[in-house]
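Researcher: Checking consistency across runs. Here is ABC transporter ATP-binding protein again:
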Amino acid sequence: MYTDASEVPGPVALRLERVSKSYRTGNARVPALREVSLSVPAGTFTAVMGPSGSGKSTLLQCAAGLDTPDSGRVLLGSTDMSRLRRRALPAFRRDHVGFVFQSYNLLPQLSVVRNVTLPLLLGGRSVERDWLKYVLEAVGLAGLDERKPQELSGGQQQRAAIARALITRPEAVFADEPTGALDSAAARQVLDLLRHTVTDLGQTVVMVTHDPAAACSADNVLFLADGQLDGSMANASVRDITERVAYLGER
Ligand SMILES: Nc1ncnc2c1ncn2[C@@H]1O[C@H](COP(=O)(O)OP(=O)(O)OP(=O)(O)O)[C@@H](O)[C@H]1O
């Protein structure tokens, strides 16, 4: 794991610098992230693991600009998102960030192709036909593009959501438990697809998961415990990850 961007050999896609975030519940503040610093090299696949409540989703939301840290900086490519005005953030996110949710979040009234191209439409950008065709083929949905989401399996819906995340050629794709609602065969297809976007398209992917079998598709696994980073593993096996997760926060 790189905590300092100067250690990363190539371009850096994402940088968090001493990011802290807490939530107010009643009169108390619950710390969710505590001074987290990390750098994600461009064109790599990173998994984030940790016990329930360790801050994984908060980390992903802050990294993707869906939430704002209390302190610290988040840089996506060369843009310091913490310096963007609140009103500029949604447009920046739409054009530069891909997000994949556990529950797909496709619009039921729109066909696959309209769901996939929606971020371009909303951004006033034209659809590059060749790129759209390539993306739909890459996710295995060629020929199904006029179907509505409810006419697809869960795995197909998630692959449509991944196509939607890729269509803008974002700086990074963030995925929060993307295989959490899928059976193991569909989950494997989604993980292979994410791997393919990294290896063959040079995409940067950051994925939160509870599942060591999913995490081992990643190049690097980051471990969170109690809102802080607690080490990482590169090219780890399912067994290595499972053992590490069992002892999280105990070192
Ligand atoms: N909207 C919120 N209001 C209050 N507390 C919150 C809120 N969101 C998260 N928290 C708290 O912040 C901490 C981190 O939560 P977060 O959802 O990031 O953890 P997580 O590792 O993703 O958990 P899980 O694996 O269960 O999804 C937890 O203590 C959680 O209860």
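Researcher: Does this match what you'd expect to see?
Model: One thing to look at in this run: The chain has one domain: 44-69+93-246.
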